[in-house]
């Protein structure tokens, strides 16, 4: 299936999920993440959810990470298709971007080479670990700057797309895992 077809399909599927159901699924997803052997790292990059797009709510996962004394790093868009990473602290001020993404106003920058785990936003993924995002290339660019051994973990309300994504590009970065409320996929 083509990326643009999957974007449309999964945006529609997410729109059908009620806020209460999305909250329950996000909590189940955070609990499922405990099954992955990722807890020995120091810096964990995680996206902050866009409420209007009914994304996975990452707050339960952030709470879990902070409860395990992990350093949580969140992105801020700068320039064209570029992310900077900031340490999320109790005093980090957040402001919504033009896309509705909560971003740090300022703070302590964390370089890509320090990050051990990246929780990646997505709309869909297939059984080979290929993912479909919103199509702007922010995360592919960011992930290509990270160390090769950095773990890439997708978060999805839905199971893997049964049909492989057919229009993968050489700069697309595959996932190592994808966590859903029902299952953890390993690639």
Give a brief rundown of this model.
It comes from Flagellimonas aurea. The protein is of the alpha/beta class. It has helices spanning 3-15, 19-32, 59-67, 138-145, and strands at residues 43-46, 71-78, 82-87, 94-96, 102-104, 117-120, 124-125, 131-132, 151-155, 177-179, 184-186.
CATH architecture: 3-Layer(aba) Sandwich
CATH class: Alpha Beta
- The total of helices stands at 4
Task: Tell me the overall shape.
Answer: globular
Radius of gyration: 15 Å
Quick check: average pLDDT? 93
Biggest sheet, strands in spatial order?
3-2-1-6-9-10-11
- Please state roughly what percent of the residues sit in beta strands, choosing from under 5%, 5-15%, 15-25%, 25-35%, 35-45% or over 45%: 15-25%
Termini separation comes to 19 Å
Q: Share of helix among residues?
A: 10-25%
The structural class is alpha/beta
Sketch the topology as an H/E string, one letter per element.
HHEHEEEEEEEHEEE
Main β-sheet, in a few words? 7 strands, mixed
Catalogue the unreliable spans.
none
- The fold-level CATH name is Rossmann fold
State the CATH superfamily name.
NagB/RpiA/CoA transferase-like
Name its key features:
187 residues; alpha/beta; seven-stranded mixed sheet; Rossmann fold; 23% strand
What do you see in this structure?
- The protein has 187 residues and is α/β, with parallel strands linked by helices.
- It has a single domain (3-186), classed as 3-Layer(aba) Sandwich (Rossmann fold).
- The protein contains 4 helices and 11 strands; from the N terminus they run ααβαβββββββαβββ.
- It has helices at residues 3-15, 19-32, 59-67, 138-145; strands at 43-46, 71-78, 82-87, 94-96, 102-104, 117-120, 124-125, 131-132, 151-155, 177-179, 184-186.
- The strands form 3 sheets. Strands 3-2-1-6-9-10-11 form a 7-stranded mixed sheet.
- β4 and β5 form a beta hairpin.
- The longest helix has 14 residues, at 19-32.
- It is globular.
- The protein starts with a helix and ends with a strand.
- The mean pLDDT is 93.
């Amino acid at each position: 299936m083509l990326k643009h077809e999957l974007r449309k399909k999964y945006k529609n599927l997410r729109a059908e999920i009620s806020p209460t159901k999305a909250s329950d699924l996000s909590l189940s997803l955070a609990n499922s993440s405990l099954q992955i052997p990722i807890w020995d790292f120091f810096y964990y990059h995680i996206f902050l959810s866009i409420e209007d797009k009914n994304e996975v709510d990452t707050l339960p996962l952030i709470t879990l990470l902070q409860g395990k004394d992990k350093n949580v790093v969140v992105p801020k868009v700068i320039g064209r298709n570029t992310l900077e990473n900031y340490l999320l602290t109790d005093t980090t001020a957040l402001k919504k971007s033009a896309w509705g993404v909560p971003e740090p106003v300022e703070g302590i920058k964390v370089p890509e080479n320090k990050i051990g785990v990246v929780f990646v936003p997505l709309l869909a993924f297939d059984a080979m670990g290929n993912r479909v995002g919103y199509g702007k290339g922010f995360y592919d660019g960011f992930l290509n700057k990270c160390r090769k051994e950095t773990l890439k973990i997708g978060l999805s309300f839905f199971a893997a797309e049964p049909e492989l994504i057919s229009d993968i590009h050489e700069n697309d970065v595959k996932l190592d895992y994808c966590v859903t409320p029902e299952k953890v996929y390993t690639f």
